């Protein structure tokens, strides 16, 4: 499937991923209203990747958000020390350190999807990784709805 009018977005993501892999990791925020195609764009970009592994985590629209939901998703994809730390119910500090270690292991495209539904622990994780992303070869893409009134990410970032 060819996405219409998304070549520039795909090109920018490819450029940022190349810079992350060659130099140092970085964070990209992908905002847009519901239904505009953020997920479709990211899935298309993820399918194009050959040089970097793709790790995908999402927040869900639950009445009680799943603490560290994206981290649980990513841990199940890596099957390593990060998963062991989560299964051992490690402290937030241990979980965050294990996540950073996992990202330092190999170049990656890391997606945190639907951050407008994030719990506070996930926002803390985003802050932790964002401040240290340059120690990795990871492009961290954070998608969120910018039309959600009361969104945690919007308040958090302002």
Describe the protein's architecture and organization.
- The protein is an alpha/beta fold and 158 residues long.
- The protein has one domain (7-157): P-loop containing nucleotide triphosphate hydrolases (Rossmann fold, 3-Layer(aba) Sandwich), CATH 3.40.50.
- 48% of the residues lie in helices and 17% in strands.
- It has 7 helices and 4 strands, in the order αβαβαααβαβα.
- The protein has helices at residues 7-22, 38-47, 69-78, 81-87, 92-105, 120-132, 152-157, and strands at 26-32, 53-58, 108-113, 138-145.
- The chain has a 4-stranded parallel sheet.
- Helix 1 crosses helix 2 and helix 5 crosses helix 6.
- The longest helix is centred in the first third of the chain and has 16 residues, at 7-22.
- The termini are far apart.
Q: How would the blueprint of this fold be written?
A:
Elements lengths: L6 H16 L3 E7 L5 H10 L5 E6 L10 H10 L2 H7 L4 H14 L2 E6 L6 H13 L5 E8 L6 H6 L1
Parallel strand pairs: 1-4, 2-3, 3-4
Beta-strand percent range = 15-25%
| Class per helix and strand makeup | alpha/beta
Query: Which ranges are low-confidence, i.e. pLDDT below 50, for 5 or more consecutive residues?
Result: 151-158
Mean pLDDT across all amino acids: 86
Q: Please identify the oligomeric state.
A: single chain
Cα-to-Cα separation, first versus last residue: 36 Å
Q: What does the main sheet amount to? A: 4 strands, parallel
Count of DSSP strands: 4
SSE arrangement, N to C = HEHEHHHEHEH
CATH superfamily: P-loop containing nucleotide triphosphate hydrolases
What's the CATH topology label? Answer: Rossmann fold
The CATH level-2 architecture is identified as 3-Layer(aba) Sandwich
* Overall outline: globular
User: Which strands sit side by side, in order, in the main sheet?
Assistant: 1-4-3-2
């Amino acid at each position: 499937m060819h996405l219409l009018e998304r070549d520039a977005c795909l090109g920018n993501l490819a450029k940022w991923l190349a810079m992350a892999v060659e130099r140092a990791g970085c964070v990209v925020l992908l905002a847009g209203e519901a239904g505009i195609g953020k997920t479709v764009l990211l899935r298309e970009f993820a399918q194009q990747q050959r040089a970097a592994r793709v790790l995908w985590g999402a927040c869900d629209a639950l009445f009680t958000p799943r603490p560290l939901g994206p981290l649980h998703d990513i841990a199940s994809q890596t099957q390593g020390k990060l998963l062991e730390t989560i299964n051992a119910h490690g402290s937030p500090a241990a979980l965050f350190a294990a996540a950073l270690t996992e990202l330092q292991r190999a170049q990656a495209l890391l997606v945190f999807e639907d951050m407008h539904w994030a719990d506070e622990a996930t926002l803390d994780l985003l802050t932790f990784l964002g401040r240290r992303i340059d120690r990795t070869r990871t492009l961290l893409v954070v998608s969120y709805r910018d039309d959600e009134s009361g969104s945690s990410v919007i308040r958090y970032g302002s």
